Amino acid sequence: MSTSTASPSPLRRGGINPRTLILFALAGVVLCGGAWLALGLANRGGSESPNTNGQAPRLSDYGVVPNLSLTERSGQQLSLDELKGEVWVANFIFTRCEGSCLAMSTKMQELQNALQQVEGVRLVSFTVDPENDTPEKLTSFAEKYQADGRKWLFLRGSESAIQQMAKETFKLPFMDGTDPKEPIIHSSRFVLMDQQMHIRGYYGNNDPDVLKKLIADIMVLKDTGAE
């Protein structure tokens, strides 16, 4: 497991066999007591069409993510279109959040660890508090979760652009809150995108099987492409 927190040029691709690597990664976690990572294709919370012929299920399509220019925690400008050709998982967080963001980031760290050697998969955390979350603060936050800049990106943009993306593209709630621990109310769901920037699934943070479901669906997209 890489614990590098540097943020090199974030988008690289390779020819490593993803299924072989993910099976090794999962086997290691299971032996350490992480049986929740066992691969399975059942009960994915409505992210797929019914499977009646024994073949891999077809995931639903919830629309396309438009291009947007954002800033990564490294300070590097990144266009979302640069993620085309890769499977990626997104969530929305902010660094001064004392509630759901902590649990979500822990799960993202676990997902990163399981998929560390699998090429063509990225994790993306969008901050919903860009005025406060400078690249330096995002870097400090990322280091707490041993985020590898080659695998896990932390992106910020204008507040209006992030709100519009959350509400209109991802169809997720976003509003000001009154709880000091949650001054910004946002969704705690994880969102899965395919290689063509289409939204293919939503996954609840409170679901005990969320990582198992995410990994299974990631592998469906890796095996079948953006069908």
Intertermini distance: 31 Å
Radius of gyration: 17 Å
Low-confidence stretches: 1-15, 26-56
Share of residues in strands: 15-25%
Major sheet description: 7 strands, mixed
Overall pLDDT = 80
Element-by-element helix/strand order: HEEEHEHEHEEEEH
The chain-level structural class is: alpha+beta
What is the second-level CATH architecture? 3-Layer(aba) Sandwich
Large-scale geometry: globular
| Share of helix, binned | 25-40%
Number of strands: 9
When the domains are counted, the total is 1
The number of distinct helices, counting runs of at least 4 residues, comes to 5
CATH structural class: Alpha Beta
Strand order, largest beta sheet: 2-1-5-4-3-8-9
CATH superfamily: Glutaredoxin
Task: Briefly characterize the structure.
With 227 residues, this protein is α+β, with helices and mostly antiparallel strands. The protein has 5 helices and 9 strands; from the N terminus they run H-E-E-E-H-E-H-E-H-E-E-E-E-H. The chain has a single domain, classed as Glutaredoxin (3-Layer(aba) Sandwich), CATH 3.40.30.
